Amino acid sequence: MTGPGRGTEYGVFLPVGNGGWIVSDTAPQPQATYADNRATALLADDLGLDFVMSMAKWRGYGGSTDHWGRTLESLTTTAALAEATERVQVWATVHTNLFHPAVVAKVFATLDQVSGGRCGLNVVVGAYEREFSQMGQWRADFDHDDRYRYTEEWLEVLERLWTEDSVTHHGEFFTLDDCQSRPHPARRPTVVSAGRSPAGLRFQGAHCDGSFLTAPDLPGLRRAGEEVRAHAAAHGRTVRTYAMLTVVLGDSDAAAEAAFREYGRGYDVEALTAMKLSWGLPLEQALSLGAGDEAHEAFQTAVVVGGAGSVTEQVLRLVHDGGLDGVMLIFPDYLRDLPVFGERVLPALRAAG
């Protein structure tokens, strides 16, 4: 991210968890190896994509697929990919309830050097109770808004450590006395975050360079983008908006539709139910799988399906109608699909600006 006014950004959500982003036993099964993630990042670098991002996940969802039962750690992976790549931005995810801001300040000052100023921080307010209670790091006394207040102070401390030689801070959640973290990053790392709650949008507008949005439809996506931009403007700043998108690309529309249906056919009910419960959904709602088009149940994001021309049109419609500045792409089989996307779709997207 180099500032407002540039064209639409396209990046890749790396498959650092087994199964990738399709919860199905009939879909391709990325195995969350560093070798595959390195190969994916190198493809993104060669194709001229703008960023790659890795999630942070500490516990999977079980089921027949053991979805995300095996994951790579985000900071370690990003450091290695920063060394392996040359141009693409490399964004790591940090759960603020697991890492002290003084530790993160030092990590990203190091990543800034390793990447030559290409690193970014995806700030996540941890909300999956079982993920953190298993290691004694869950605050049962924190509600949703408490977690955002904590994270605002966390980020305030981090930003000061990136710019000040000595930080003394006595706050609600953190106490630092003459805390030093040098060297500082030569270039402030890009800060992004996700969330659709009012507190999440306020946080992103006030503190982040990028906001990852979700909504049930394109008008909702546009409204969320307008809201987060309004929060940013109230603080005298700007924020870019992104959405996640799964691309099922085939030689023809019919071939892509057949693959989409096949991937959806094997959706893992147990893993998806556990995932929905982790979002805080009531049990009855989490169990209500297949209420609409069952093929969509396996996919965790919006999906575009078709040949190259159809996919190009659908992505451009998402960007335009959703009022987006960027899209983070997901593929069923990254090493097979990403080169095809780069050859048949990306040039047309770039040409459209």
From TrEMBL:
Q: What is this protein called?
A: Pyrimidine oxygenase
Q: What are the recorded Gene Ontology BP terms?
A: alkanesulfonate catabolic process
Q: Name one GO molecular function term.
A: uracil oxygenase activity
- Keywords assigned by UniProt, alphabetized: Flavoprotein, FMN, Monooxygenase, Oxidoreductase
Pfam families, alphabetically? Bac_luciferase (PF00296)
**Which InterPro entries does the record associate with it?**
Luciferase-like_dom, Luciferase-like_sf, SsuD_RutA_monooxygenase
Flavoprotein recorded as keyword: yes
Q: Under which EC number(s) is this enzyme classified?
A: 1.14.99.46
| Sequence ranges assigned to domain Luciferase-like in this UniProt record | 9-325
Please name the source species: Kineococcus aurantiacus
Q: Which Gene3D superfamilies match?
A: Luciferase-like domain
Q: Which domain of life is it from?
A: Bacteria
